[in-house]
Design goal:
The protein has helices at residues 36-42, 68-81, 94-105, 125-141, 144-154, 157-162, 164-175, 179-190, 196-199, 219-227, 244-247, 249-264; strands at 2-4, 10-16, 21-25, 47-51, 87-92, 110-116, 206-211, 232-237. The protein is an alpha/beta fold. Bound molecules: D-malate (MLT).
Length: 265
C-alpha cells in the first residue's frame, strides 16, 4: 500500500491483519520484506504495520538530508494517516535507532517496545569514517557496495551454507535498494544521537532480542542496554547472527508472540 506523505513524498507501508497494532521498523540496507515471516506469524492475531523508510524499498527518495528524527517523523505521519493512536513499536538495528528517536519525539504513542539487534550508543570517529567510505562506495558501485559489506555480518556461515534460498532472497532485497537512499541512511546513522540517556526514561514493557553471534549489536552490549530499561526482558537467540528475524524466524516469532500476548493481557 502506498501512502502520501504530507510534504508530497510517497511512503510505502504494508498493513496486514487486524487487532492491536504492531509497527516493525526494518534495518539497513533492507526494507519491509525482511519482516515477511513476522507478518505471516503475527498478522492472524495483530495488525502488523511494516513501512519502508524514505529512500529505501519502495518509498521515494529524500528531497533533503535525512536524520533519524526525520525517519521517525515519517513513521508518526504514517500512524496518523492509518488512524493509529497508539502501538507496540519494534525496531531492528537501524529500525531500533529510529525507535529511539520516536520515543524521544512521541513516547505517548507507544505502549510496548521491541528492540532487536540494535544498540543505543552513537558512532565514534572510526564508525563515522566507515559510514562515509560506505557512502562513497555506494556512489561508485551502487547498492552492491552495501550488500557485499553487510552480507557476511547478517547471517552465520552455517546459514550461508544451509539456506541458499534465504541468501538469494536477501541479496535480491539488498540489490533492489536505491543507492542514493542508502547514502542518506549511512550519513543519518553516522550522526545519530546518543540514546543511552533515553533508556532510563523508558517505562513501557520492553523485549530485547539479541543474536548469539551478532557482531554489530553483540549480546553483551544488548544486555547492558536491557539492564538500563526498567521493564525489560532480555533474550538471546542461539546459532543466530545479526539478522535474527530472517535467520531464525520461528524462535523470533515465538518470543514476539509470547511478549505481545502478555502485554495485551
Ligand atoms: C542495520 O542492520 O540496520 C545496520 O547494521 C545498522 C548499523 O549499521 O549500525
Amino acid at each position: 500500500m502506498m501512502k502520501k506523505h504530507e510534504n508530497g513524498t510517497d511512503l510505502f507501508v504494508q498493513d496486514q491483519g487486524q487487532g492491536a497494532p504492531v509497527i516493525l521498523l526494518h534495518g539497513f540496507p533492507l526494507d519491509h520484506r525482511m519482516w515477511e515471516e513476522q507478518v505471516k506469524g503475527l498478522s492472524p492475531h495483530f495488525r502488523v504495520i511494516t513501512p519502508d523508510f524514505r529512500g529505501m524499498g519502495q518509498s521515494s527518495l529524500p528531497l533533503s538530508a535525512m536524520s533519524l528524527e526525520q525517519y521517525a517523523q515519517d513513521v508518526l505521519s504514517l500512524m496518523d494517516e492509518l488512524g493509529i493512536e497508539k502501538a507496540t513499536l519494534g525496531g531492528f538495528s537501524m529500525g531500533g535507532y529510529v525507535a529511539f528517536s520516536l520515543l524521544r519525539l512521541a513516547p505517548e504513542r507507544f505502549s510496548a517496545l521491541i528492540l532487536a539487534n540494535t544498540r543505543p550508543e552513537p558512532d565514534g570517529p572510526e564508525g563515522r569514517k566507515n559510514r562515509m567510505n560506505m557512502a562513497v562506495s555506494l556512489y561508485d558501485k551502487g547498492a552492491a557496495a552495501a550488500r557485499d559489506a553487510m552480507l557476511p555480518k547478517l547471517v552465520t556461515p552455517a546459514t550461508v551454507q544451509d539456506q541458499p534460498q534465504l541468501i538469494d532472497n536477501l541479496k535480491q532485497i539488498m540489490d533492489s535498494m536505491p543507492a542514493e537512499g542508502l547514502v542518506h541512511a549511512s550519513i543519518a546513522m553516522a550522526f545519530r544521537e546518543d540514546s543511552v540517556p533515553l533508556l532510563s526514561s523508558i517505562t513501557v514493557p520492553t523485549l530485547v532480542i539479541a543474536g548469539e553471534q551478532d557482531a554489530i549489536a553483540p549480546p553483551d552490549v544488548m544486555k547492558s542496554m536491557a539492564d538500563r530499561i526498567s521493564n525489560a526482558s532480555f533474550q538471546i537467540v542461539p546459532a543466530a547472527s545479526h539478522l535474527v528475524p530472517m535467520e531464525k524466524p520461528e524462535a523470533f516469532n515465538s518470543l514476539l508472540l509470547e511478549f505481545l500476548h502478555d502485554v495485551k493481557a
